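Researcher: Going back to the complex we discussed earlier. I've cleaned up the inputs and rechecked each line, so this should be the final set. Can you rerun the prediction on the complete assembly and write out the structure?
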Amino acid sequence: MAGHLAPGDRLPTEAELMQTYGCARMTVNKALSALSVAGLVDRRKRAGTFVARPKLHSMVLDVPDIAAQVRERGQDYAYRPLVRSVRPAGVEAEETLLAGEGLLLQIDGLHHADGVAFGVEFRLISAAAVPQIVDADLDTVSPGSWLLSHVPWTEAETRISAVAATSNEARRLGVAAGEPCLCVERRTWRGSERVTYVRQLFLGHAYDLVARFGPGTSTR
Amino acid sequence: MAGHLAPGDRLPTEAELMQTYGCARMTVNKALSALSVAGLVDRRKRAGTFVARPKLHSMVLDVPDIAAQVRERGQDYAYRPLVRSVRPAGVEAEETLLAGEGLLLQIDGLHHADGVAFGVEFRLISAAAVPQIVDADLDTVSPGSWLLSHVPWTEAETRISAVAATSNEARRLGVAAGEPCLCVERRTWRGSERVTYVRQLFLGHAYDLVARFGPGTSTR
DNA sequence: TCATTATAAATGTATAGACAAAATAGATCG
DNA sequence: CGATCTATTTTGTCTATACATTTATAATGA
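Model: Rerun complete. Updated structure for the full complex:
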């Protein structure tokens, strides 16, 4: 971290470090292994341990709770449901996003900050994976928060892009069509079962995401 | 992962797992510690090990090499420099982005796919932190790639947002002003020294980012 | 009843020793 | 000269043991 070793440089062997720091090899090994999973060094048997070339290939993206983030700025957060419908899967092309398993719950809603809408959300939930959702009260709490606290999930994929608001979306957000928006699409699984698909559209000037890489990031 | 244990459930103690799987406690401990740093379980002394409630608070964001990503789609990638200037820091307000240390190198450039520009990049590099950059050949290779392979860095922060292309940016990208673009701003440090600031603007329909959370993500 | 103290249960971390696995470097042979 | 085999170095992983640290729970006392 101090920069004494450049990427590609070889570190002392475990045996040498063991001597240097006067501790057992297991201890050195655990430390180096930790550096390895943190991506700071590469280790190859027989060859040794090398400073990894920094790769920007992965960073830790903070996906903040929307409500908490808004409140942190001193604003008032509110979620307002727009549409809620239960229907069998496979009716529309969109359902390929969640794909064919029993009943499908569609929930649209708006995210407000200080009473002004800054994000619109389209969500599909598989009733097969989340049976409790049908009777849940989703008028005040956002389905995102509800799912987070009620449904264990094991895998998620988020796609981030920039799009122009369609006329429909723009109307809901109270802006002109074509307004640049940050589009967050997220698919969530529990095991191999799909749980939910959500597409969130945030006004470009009202929302951003932050990702970090560095000490303290990977080690939490 | 199989869902047999719900969030909040308590796992067997290390001693019990040791019996169950017939191995040493150190082995059990290493396994549980790994699950802990992966964020799948929480461990409290005296209390035990518990299935963590899934938090969407952090995901792993793939920041792909732009060139590689374009080529993966079967397209031809090219970087073309636009502006390159060396000047003392502190001249413009922008320099607060990298802040006052000696000479500052500004490099603007375009990212092309199959000859068509899809991204424009504005970059500041601290010559104090990267003295070699002044003499580097940056006509064919993008400064991003050059820096990656020549400068070890320890920390980076990326901000992602959606913005409308300014008339200047739109001209360079060959689109209409106001076109929605994905804006990626990244600050990079080595220790406490700032290395570079970059602001990249990608055409919304030509670029997106993907973040994942799940088995195999944190463990690489 | 409440605050304080003591006990014990669980994780956290270190050690020394052993063997496995991989891959480089060298030796051998055609 | 090249291919193949061998030896050795280095990391990967497990084991058994020991002691430290934290903290939930039980015991104690005013």
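Model: Worth noting: Residues 13-15, 29, 32-33, 43-49 of chain A lie near DNA strand D (CB under 10 Å from a C1').
Researcher: Good, that matches what I expected from the previous run.
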